[in-house]
Amino acid sequence: MKHVERPLALTNNAHDRAVEHRRDAEWMRRQWSSPETRALLVVGSDIEVDADHRLPRWVAASEAPPGEKYLLGIDEHGNSRFAVHALDERPGATYGGLRELGLAAGDEEASWLCHAVALAQWHAAHGHCARCGEPTVVEAGGAERRCPADGSLHFPRVDPAVIVLVTDDHDRALMGRQAQWPEGRFSTLAGFVEPGESAEQAVCREVAEEAGVEVIDISLVATQPWPFPSSLMIGARARVEGEQVPRPDGEELVDVRWFTRSELEQAVANETVMVPGPISISRWLIDGWFGGELPDNRAGWR
Q1: How far is Cα of residue 152 from the mean position of the Cα atoms in its chain?
Q2: For the whole model, what pTM was predicted?
Q3: C-alpha dihedral sign at 237, 242, 248, 254
């Protein structure tokens, strides 16, 4: 069956990140003082939202609480947008995660949210110099951290990971369940790319390690930023040749099986199988193979 591809969440808009202004301290000061500037308020990996509409709440810079400031960019009207990384939630405020907000927001809004959460996650984990251990400070509008002790610069980290929809000669899809997931949760196979390894090599290795089958005809089809906390998901398709019986490794996966379209549709309908939520590239791959969106009332867990 021909793959049917719907738009992939978090990838359909690229906002102006104002890279040329990041090192201009005076420009940054003026923008932060402008009444037209707006900021997202981030605590951990959550964003403050409008309690009535469950949409991200952009506040004037003057209303923002104390916290590290990161430049996100310039909007279509020429106004600056920032993220403020606060230590604590504001009393009475409501917060939401990117998984839910990314679905409700439009493409442009989702791009801002993804950028803000990814920066906040990285800064939270890199407050000290990896060379000497001294506390670092924010530089270049949040695009770097600098160590005042040894002068070294540290840049946001992105961890590439492959995620693959494997099919066989009968056009069945291979899906697995991780040990920590509740019974019934299944997804496509995934794993991080190791040092000195290509994405295609990672697909072969991960599928062989986790499911015990050998894949061929690997094609990389899409990528998706996934700041949970810092991944770039590299979506792929591959197939196995012949009658290969998958076997879970017992560590990463405790169950792995082939699904026909009718088997998966029925299992999802009667709630014996739960597939990933529609924001994820794993669900995008599954729906593409299925030929449309699976009717899943319990989707959204990943």
Answers
A1: 28
A2: 0.93
A3: positive
